[in-house]
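Hi support team,

I've been running sequence recovery on a batch of backbones for a student project. Most finish fine, but this one hangs at about 90% for roughly twenty minutes before it completes. I'm not sure whether the input is malformed or the queue is just slow. I've pasted the structure tokens below so you can try to reproduce it. Let me know if you need the job ID as well.

Thanks,
M.K.
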């Protein structure tokens, strides 16, 4: 009995020591970049991370960005510590010498981005895009989808006329017929399918995986590894909740973005949430994207994606 009591006391002391050490090593503030339509918006509005971190004396500061490239510029200059973006922005950030690391990634979600055309368009296949004007956000995930879809159809990138526009401007151009097709992601995809009856020509299935990546500045991840790990754990728990409660997730994202809940319900139905540690295969897929962007001149330099491996992944 005495040994049992001593063992329990020792365990309590060790646990207490760990919590104190964690608190001492933790930052006072964690700055997280988010977009209104991504998983960090869900985390922000649910408040679970703020609540858990406040118990450790950590304040979460949420910083909104209009898109991934601007968010990663914020990561590069140190205005934020953590971010979540699609596939393409990290490669551009690496090309610009941003010292970031990949913490984790979402499940592949190729159904959430697609090439669409007006309902009555004569364009039926990707091959029909030859010589056509295609709206897209330059250097974004859908840029990779378009290149891959064209190559799969026996065409080159130069066989279409890219019209580089941010989503809001591309939506207007699509509506008035100023472009022949639009390559876009959810929730904009769900919105234009719903309100404009846009017709899907090809989504990313069988072409590109399309991930969301959870990123950190290397300085932050290496200085506060337990805090970075805790954020990934929170994303896993949030993902479990969102996958089991799509209606609740759609409700939060509707509030965050101002888009109708029905649009988000359509988007969430094809959007698996999750947070998985990086693997060599995912780095290989990301390297293929970077190499393709270098090949067509979107990336000015070659990028070694795996140089952004977090040190904990190497152990």
């Amino acid at each position: 009995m005495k040994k049992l009591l001593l063992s329990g006391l020792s365990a309590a002391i060790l646990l207490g020591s760990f919590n104190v050490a964690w608190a001492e090593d933790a930052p006072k503030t964690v700055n997280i970049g988010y977009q209104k339509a991504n998983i960090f918006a869900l985390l922000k509005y649910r408040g679970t991370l703020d609540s858990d971190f406040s118990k450790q004396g950590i304040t979460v500061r949420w910083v909104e960005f209009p898109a991934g490239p601007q968010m990663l510029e914020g990561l590069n200059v140190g205005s934020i510590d953590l971010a979540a973006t699609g596939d393409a922005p990290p490669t551009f950030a690496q090309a610009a010498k941003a010292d970031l690391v990949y913490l984790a990634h979402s499940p592949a979600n190729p159904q959430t981005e697609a090439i669409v055309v007006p309902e009555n368009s004569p364009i039926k296949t990707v091959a029909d895009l030859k010589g056509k004007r295609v709206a897209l956000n330059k250097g974004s995930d859908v840029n990779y989808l378009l290149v891959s879809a064209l190559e799969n159809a026996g065409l080159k990138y130069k066989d279409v006329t890219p019209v580089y526009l941010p989503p809001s401007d591309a939506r207007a151009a699509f509506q008035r017929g100023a472009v022949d097709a639009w390559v876009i992601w959810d929730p904009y995809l769900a919105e234009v399918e719903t309100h404009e009856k846009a017709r899907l020509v090809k989504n990313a299935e069988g072409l590109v995986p399309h991930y969301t990546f959870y990123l950190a500045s290397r300085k932050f991840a290496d200085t506060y590894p337990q805090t970075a790990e805790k954020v990934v754990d929170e994303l896993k728990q949030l993902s479990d909740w969102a996958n089991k409660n799509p209606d609740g997730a759609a409700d939060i994202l509707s509030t965050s973005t101002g888009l109708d809940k029905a649009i988000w319900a359509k988007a969430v139905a094809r959007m698996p949430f999750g947070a998985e540690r990086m693997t060599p295969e995912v780095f290989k897929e990301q390297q293929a994207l970077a190499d393709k962007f270098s090949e067509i001149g979107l990336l000015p330099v070659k990028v070694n994606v795996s140089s952004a491996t977090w040190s904990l992944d190497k152990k």
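--
Follow-up from support: It reproduced on our side and the slowdown came from queue contention, not your input. The chain has two domains: 2-109+211-314, 110-203. No action needed from you.
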